[in-house]
Amino acid sequence: MDVTFSIKSKDNKIIAKNLSREEVKRFIDEEKINDHDLISKDGSGQWHPASKYKTNRSKGEVGRQEDKPPSSPVKTETVDSASQEEPDLDASSADTEHSADEDLEGQKQYEIITSFGMFWRKEAVQWVATPKLLGMKKIDDVPIDFHKQIGIYLLYDGREVIYVGRITKRPLGNRLYEHTNDRLSTRWDRFSWFGLLPVSVEGEIGALPESYTATDLIPALEAILIEALEPRQNRKRGDDLAAVEYIQKIDPAIEKKRFKATLDTVLNKL
Fold it and tell me: Rounded to whole angstroms, how far apart are CA atoms 40 and 25?
């Protein structure tokens, strides 16, 4: 059976269904859809922003656009970059092949690392048994609670990594809470995390895919190491990870406590 695709707007209105790869390419090339419309391989339930597939004709590769990401986080399914690429006629075949391989690797790891946060502050979380780990793509977005994520996390003392852990059975929020009461409790003040569970358009955390191939995992592992360790000789961040990064939002419970403490201080001075 031939693979087909659907396109919808960011407000979930279906634009087209049962499109072939060539038809999807034609929609993009003729600008019948904008950068924030979403593309999905039928049956996958996963959506990818159309901006991922825009062609940078001057470089002969599928361009990673500098456009702002859509306001709602998405877990995506890629259309094969080889079917979309229109190589620059002036570019050498070797350069074109290399560009396509790099872009495909970036797309594969993006399917594995669905979301991540860097250097989140320990003090911005209300540490209870099931803490809220709130993140946003942009400041004015509705926050998503990532406490159910699984994957990999790092604990920092300042900028120094002091602990690396994996999250499989106990989710991220519970595991971090345990570190507020164990031997590391006073030794870390920030944390980073890399999540594997898909994030829907509505901000819901989904289920873990059944398996990954080695060729999918290798670029994902490289991207995590580059992003987490920031080696000086690597000229770029982990491929495409910036597209799924979430900035931390302070827990509203902490903001309420701070407001109450400030109010009490003012009242005591009257």
Answer: 13
